[in-house]
Amino acid sequence: MAGGRIRARIRRSNLYTFGCFRPATAGSEGPHPIQGPGYSRTVHCNEPLVHKKKPLKYCSNYISTTRYNVVTFLPKAFFEQFRRVANIYFLVAAICSLFSFSPFSPVSMIAPLAFVLGVSMAKEAVEDWHRFIQDMKVNTRKAIVHNGDGTFGSKQWRNISVGDVVKTEKDQFFPADLLLLSSSYEDGLCFVETMNLDGETNLKVKRSLEATLPLESDESFKDFRGMIRCEDPNPNLYTFVGNFEYDQEVYPLDPTQILLRDSKLRNTAFVYGVVIFTGHDSKVMQNATESPSKRSRIERKMDRIIYVLLAVLLGISFMSSVGFLVQTKYQMPDWWYLQPQNPQSCYNPNQAFASALCHFVTAVMLYGYLIPISLYVSIEMVKFLQAIFINRDIDMFDEDSGVPAHARTSNLNEELGQVDTILSDKTGTLTCNQMDFLKCSIAGTTYGLQSSEVELAAAKQIAIDLEEQGQEISSTLDWGRNRNNAGADASEIELEEVVATKRGRYEKRNVKGFSFKDERLMNGSWIDEPNPEAVLLFLRILALCHTAIPEVNELTGEITYEAESPDEIAFLVAAKEFGFEFFKRTQSSIFIRERYASSMNSIQREYKILNLLDFTSKRKRMSVIVRDEEGQIFLLCKGADSIIFDRLAKNGRIFEEATTRHLNEYGENGLRTLALAYQKLEESEYMAWNTEFTKAKTSIGVDRETMLEKLSDLMEKDLILVGATAVEDKLQKGVPQCIDKLAQAGLKIWVLTGDKMETAINIGFSCSLLRQGMKRICIAVTNSEALVKESKKAIKENILMQITNATQMVKLEKDPHAAFALIIDGKTLVYALEDDMKHQFLGLAVDCASVICCRVSPKQKALVTRLVKEGTGKTTLAIGDGANDVGMIQEADIGVGISGVEGMQAVMASDFSIAQFRFLEKLLVVHGHWCYKRVAQMICYFFYKNIAFGLTFFYFEAFTAFSGQSIYDDWYMILFNVFVTSLPVISLGVFEQDVSAEICLQFPALYPARTEESVLRLQAFRSIGQTADMATIGTAMFTCIVWVVNCQIALTMSHFTWIQHFVIWGSIGFWYVFLIVYGMLPPRLTGNVYQILAKVLAPAPSYWAITLLVTVTCILFYFVHISVQRCFNPMDHHVIQEIKYLKRDVQDKVMWTRERSKARQETKIGFTARVEAKMRILRGKLQKKTLTISSRLGRKIGSGSFGEIYLGTNVQTNEGSFDQACECRLSGIPNVRWFGVEGEYNVLGS
Q1: Other C-beta atoms within 10 Å of 1018: how many?
Q2: In what order do the strands lie in the sheet containing 249-253?
Q3: Cis peptide preceding 333, ω within 30 of 0
Q4: Which of 106, 413, 1089, 1114 has the most crowded CB, counting CB atoms within 10 A?
């Protein structure tokens, strides 16, 4: 086979007892009654042309996640643009400019609006084009499809039709929903990974009908015909009802024969299937929701500000019209130079009220500069540039996959700085589906010196605490291990190993899935242990109790394993490293190479597989019954400790107490644990049981599963405990640290997964969303039978009572360190998300430190996300990597897709994509912080400059009898927003940094960013000279405006580069260059501003004096405000800026560390919270250590900044007796001491 792998062809059904055993008379079951609404689909197998015509014409296999198409782009894009209030105003103003009463020409009003709309719509088109390209990558994937003549050829996914026969090979995705016809295995079994659909990584077993097993080659499909009658397209992933008419027989279909689109074929060479559902009819696409149009909160808030400005605009327009009414009626008849005897419609003293109405429309247009037309397009440009910086951030580039971060839409950049709740998928998002064998307990003795991440972090934090007291641990005390007693207290070994590992005493072997370090078990050394027989049994259980398949690479001879769960792979790798290598499996046997010492050759042993009782979430254990070469029969069992301990025999509990203690310690350290036990069976006892078991598993009826479970329980009793395993769930790189940082930033994190509850809880512990001591609230239906027997009302009442009691318990809790975790499954969520209960559920969830929803469907993920978003009214972010996450990604305010190896559906539906979960830290804490503050400051400054500019029109009108005349030249007004103020505000939005990226990560309390409140001061301008003409006054006023708004933005900025200096002072310089160049043009083009700077303004000292005076006066109040604020009421980033500027972080590291420790939100989840809990446990244990000294301490033999050292005799500790020992008393730290023989020091405590 490809890749040099060899796999035996075996009948896999014998390995799976419950779910996949095919009763001999299965074909006797009658067909499903397919009739009525919802069951109208008919599929003609191997006849795709039939489905090209009505009434059997179904949708194509083409999928699209774009927001627009050629037909809908213009209407949808215009709708999006005119959802913005300002654009509606400018549309009305552009229409009014066509009439005579307009103070501006039509071109000057229509052109800016067209430019703004054009730029925004072009940006939307480009972003949607990128979505289209990614859709095409999926639609143009190749599949192997039957050509109709017994041959198969390549065809793009989008061209696959209902009725096509498709051949899918190993590790390929299914292109549509298929009916499984046959596979490379004789009995029609195949293995499917559904991680993209439900998040589960364990392989699902699918089986074909016996009737289609002969269809095992390409040629056999030449004359294949059949008909499928089944349910209509629906989103339910776990049900399917249909009948298959083939060879004049009708066979019932169920979900075990259905292969869903975007699931992957694993551990099977190939399968044949016929297409049932295509494209948007497939179940995974039925779970998808329409791509929504999202707007940021700050943009919606901006609309409210524009409403206020519109009200101000209408108010001053009304005031202006009233003034115009008075002037026209009472004073205009006396102004002979206005020729009142020849009145126009808008200047008629005899119709003053009508003239005032006409003037009102003019005023609304004249004062329109209060509304910043270029605000939206400037924000679009700034967000586009911000997105480029996100895309090119080298810190968010994944070197392993070569995938960078990608802002797929830039509309939501600033939303990244306002996230309150993160809803995350588990599989592929938090985890990388790899377990590491770390520790084990055998016969009451713990093995494994490698420390978990939690242990390392706790010891490191304690060391930091000690060093802050002035202690130089590494140079004063030898942290090495010199144990005389190998079975010393496990906690002592752990803490010592933390330091030993940190100092590099042990070299880490690069064995995937195996991080165990303890020479007592390696290289056959276990033979010298006190209980070698127990160790032998332990290792054999690891090598035999599983359902894995070995694969041998024919090029290298290396053996790898494929199993239903990563736990089994970790156990097999560990057994192999210990000398018990599982290398071959046949239909009835398992072959092991056993090596008992490093110098001995391995011995090949065969174990007959008699029965396999597989794992289910209800049983929480699995067992295998084997016969060894000597004919002895053993039942080998592994499972949850609570389940195994309940099934122990009286003589099998010898090591229960010690094993329980070790299991608790492993759990505190974030490890996943299983207990291992066995039972030796008598031949007669086994044969009697097997007869009943065989009879039960070949029976047909609803009681079959119940009978099998009862017989399994009957066998799995009177067990003898051997030991326990502890594996570390390998999260994706940096996940615990990322979650910890996000928790310190005040974000809440929910996990929504399709995995079973046990797996979800274990992952919760691994990523520190759960920890030992955290009170878990599990909301679930009491038992599965209740779903059948009880009414819906009774079930809802039961769930509501659980929620109410849990809420009361949370509110009555008085312990400040108490933390609650809410765990709920999908069946319960069906009721909890109903309208009459969802708010109580949300209230409980918000009060808990962490929330884990397991066994949830894709649609439930979307509903939970909607509940959090609408119920809390705060910004939500959803992150996932599979097609099952698309719904919640689209429903959340911000959707983040992880571009992993399991398809691109999540990425295509997302707003931002990253390669690893850990990059979410910088995306939010750095880019979110920056983007939010930049956009907020930019908006404040935009309103400031436009209000300042717009009100100058009103002030001038008050001096000109509200005539509706513009004070400025038309080119001045075009320049104001396009050139002289646009670049500085864009530089503010793109380059501004209140603090650096490093500081953002060190001080997570700076997130969420707070809106900067700019002081918008209305500037009063007065005429420069009574004898100056209107052009001179307008130019002087405009010069003052240019200086004021650019100096104001310079004061606003915290971060300067040459770019900011260039655009700010360059904008001011450009204004003078423009005046010179514009003034040199012929008078017919420039009118009254011909050489106005060179001949009129520049020679006048008053022009320069007024420019300086007005600028200083206008910005003085803001300068005083920010100076007082920084001195007496500084914000967080002000303090950090001052520390960095004065380099206090380098000069006083203690102060800097203290400030950093303060800069985090109080949280009860995350790695830091878990380490703090671990430290409380450590200190509590240290306080309980007792020391009995028979004689008083002797002479003092040393002292230092760390404390004092005394030499004593016959020191008794709970670790043993030392004839002569040293005690190190640490100054100010009474709970930590070191003991040991003179010259050797060991850490006591755990």
Answers
A1: 11
A2: 41-45, 226-230, 242-246, 249-253
A3: no
A4: 413
